[in-house]
Amino acid sequence: MDFKNLMDKQIQLIDRSLDQVLPKEKDYQDIIFESMRYSVFAGGKRLRPILMLAACEFVGGHEKDVLPFCCAIEMIHTYSLIHDDLPAMDNDDFRRGKPTNHKVYGEGIAVLAGDGLLNYAYEIMLKSLLQDAGDPKRKIQAMEEIARAAGIYGMIGGQVVDLASENKQIDGDALDYIHNHKTAALIVAAIRAGAIIGGADDQALNRLTEYGKCIGLGFQITDDLLDILGDEKKLGKKVGSDIENHKSTYPSIHGIDQSIAKVQELFHKSLAALQGYDNKSAFFVNLADYLVKREY
Fold it and tell me: Rounded to two decimals, what is the model's pTM?
């Protein structure tokens, strides 16, 4: 099976799982269920759950053990996008070619939909933990990885520094902090959580972590480049919003050519991290290639 077909198959698996676990019943608060599902199923690469699933299988783990955590991390990612699009944050009208959540449901419901997805993600992980007849330690460890990466020492921390840096000239170190925490942290956590649930040894976990750090930062630098050079129709959102919001980005600090070179450097470092696992690493190699070759 070629890489594109494999990715499509994994996306379908994640989407089916999300559809099963997300509430859809009719009740007094059914507007929140509708709003949550609207953003979860608005399209997307499902990068984080796919990485989690791949990392689990890479170390010999089983799909059934990790799927609830795959759903949870996609919900956490989606919550962050709903909040990121709000007028108080990036003030975006479109996401993946569709009106953003607050444009459809209003700001109040959008805030609550994000809150709902974040909270429900932990409900799903805890339910999986309580239903596990085996040793729960791996799943507790995985939850800790995800919680930290999503919180004040990870994604939220990066978002805080990103907001505080608007209309300011920041240096490369501060920008690396933002990218490594706001974007890369949850990507790394997805990989680490999947590997931990799958029973990774220290060497495999360290190698996969290094891979995740490289593609996480490379993914965000590519997003910075796409915001300048990308095609709005292909991206499904407005380009130029970083400039409009006076945000520092890799291209604004380092220039376009150096930013492209940095992505290539990170790509090669990600491959080097998995040397010695040649019979298992094909998916990760192809994924890294796919991420850095998104069209500018």
Answer: 0.92
The tokens describing 193, both together, are 């959580």
Going by pLDDT thresholds of 50, 70 and 90, the confidence category of residue 276 is confident
Instruction: Say how far apart CA 217 and CA 131 lie, in whole Å.
Output: 35
Residue 224 belongs to what domain range?
A: 3-292
Tokens matching residue 124? 């799903």
What digits encode the pLDDT tens for the residues 13-38?
A: 999 999 999 998 888 999 999 999 99
CATH number at residue 38: 1.10.600.10
Q: Which residues fall within 8 angstroms of residue 96, CB to CB, at 6 or more apart?
A: 42, 43, 44, 236, 237
Count of domains forming the chain: 1
> How many Cβ atoms from other residues are within 10 Å of residue 210's Cβ?
17
Please give the C-alpha separations between residue 60 and each of 51, 55, 204, 260, in angstroms, as whole numbers.
Answer: 14, 9, 11, 35
For residue 58, which of 148, 215, 190 has the smallest C-alpha distance?
190
According to DSSP, the β-strands at 94-95 and 98-99 are antiparallel
Q: Is the model's pLDDT at 230 over the cut of 80?
A: no
Nearest C-alpha neighbor of 169 from the set 244, 252, 272? 252
